[in-house]
Amino acid sequence: MRLRFWGTRGSIPAPGPDTVRFGGNSTCVQLELGGRQVIIDAGSGIRPLGRALLGRMHEVVLLITHLHPDHLLGFPFFAPIFDPRMTIRVGGWPNGLLGLRRLFYSGRPVGGFPVPFDLLPATIVRDPALAPPRFRLGEYMVRTAPLSHPQGSIGYRFDGPEGCLVFITDNELPPQGLPSHLVDFCRGANVLIHDCQYLPQEMGPFRGRGHSDWPSALALALAAGVGRLIFTHHDPERSDLQVQQMVDQARAHAPKLAVDAAAEGMVLEL
Predict the structure, then answer these.
(1) What CATH number should be reported for the domain whose range is 2-269?
(2) What share of the chain has pLDDT > 90, as a percent?
């Protein structure tokens, strides 16, 4: 099981000199599972991923967490959709394919990417075999969990011979009392990747927006007994220095737990 981050930013892409280290592209993760190429979300990070994949393979699985724009907006610029040899199997969020289709020109004067979805050369299909709450990808079991986010979102747990990885973005943990279903969902994972958009002092005015702060993500990791915690979905206003400060604070509070922040280009192997 090999994971690479192609987009780590939340809400909107934030390129610039202050986000070079951890990245300015919005959410996109690449997983290699026993020879299969699995992509989670199609934020702006999927554009450079598309260049890397083009011509190397003819099928990918695209798992969608939810339909907010920062997790879909890169799809019209994903080079493999213009390759007639490519098949993209869309799964996860039940209306994932519909959300992708709505990015494209519909024949009505309402905007959208100028190429109609139905004229894309690649084969892009919703695969019912990739539907929640659980499905298999070869020898890997994939489970999903509902998250606390406006209009909904789902997290993913991947269990395989090498161990377990959990990916949870766009999730607001409550100020008191961790959801038992999420603790069980994350329990014993080698790696937990979790939303950490806000600082604790920001949660008051931002409560209800569907994102967490670092103490909440840390509490979940400790309660579930995970091996490593990685913060993701960095706020677009958060500089590299400020992201690192969050990591340093979390490490000071839990010195026995490995804590890092997701960075574009970071590779994890189980």
Answers:
(1) 3.60.15.10
(2) 93
